Each structure stands twice: as structure tokens, then as C-alpha cells.
């Protein structure tokens, strides 16, 4: 079981790499204050949300 490559137990393939940039991150500033960063919404998902939205006038 000891391979030269380290693979997560839940990973199905050793060649798939996880994204390390653009993920949610929290930075502790001090005194119970955090700076939270999150990835921007993708333009294609914004478009699909507007097209398939259930709210009235979503296509406008």
C-alpha cells in the first residue's frame, strides 16, 4: 500500500489535481475578526441562472 505517490483515500485517480486557488479561505485578523474570501461566480452559471430562474422576469 505504500506507493511513491500520495493519493487521498477518496480520490479515484492519482492524475486528478485539486484546485488550490480561488477556493474559500478565511484569514484570522485578530480579536474575533476574519477576512473571508470566496471564488467569483462563473459567467456561464450566472447566465444559466438568469435563463432558468423561477422568478418572474428572469429573462429580462
How would you portray this structure in words?
The protein contains one helix and two strands. The chain has a domain at about 20-60. The protein is about 15% helix and about 20% strand. By secondary structure, the chain is α+β, with helices and mostly antiparallel strands.
Please tell me the overall pLDDT: 75
What's the story with the biggest beta sheet?
2 strands, antiparallel
Helical fraction: 10-25%
Number of helices: 1
Shape type: flat
Helix-strand sequence: EEH
Terminal-residue CA separation: 57 Å
Spans of at least 5 consecutive residues whose pLDDT stays below 50 are none
Radius of gyration over all CA atoms, rounded: 19 Å
Would you tell me the structural class of the helices and strands? alpha+beta
Question: In short, what is this structure?
Answer:
With 60 residues, this protein is α+β, with helices and mostly antiparallel strands. It has one helix at 43-51, and strands spanning 25-30, 33-37. It is built from one helix and two strands.
Topology:
Elements: E1 25-30, E2 33-37, H1 43-51
Antiparallel strand pairs: 1-2
Pick out its properties:
60 residues, alpha+beta, two-stranded antiparallel sheet, 1 helix, flat
Amino acid at each position: 500500500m505504500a506507493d511513491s505517490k500520495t493519493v487521498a483515500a477518496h480520490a479515484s485517480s492519482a492524475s486528478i489535481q485539486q484546485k488550490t486557488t480561488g477556493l474559500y479561505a478565511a484569514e484570522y485578523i485578530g480579536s474575533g475578526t476574519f477576512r473571508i474570501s470566496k471564488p467569483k461566480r462563473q459567467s456561464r452559471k450566472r447566465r444559466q441562472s438568469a435563463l432558468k430562474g423561477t422568478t418572474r422576469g428572469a429573462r429580462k
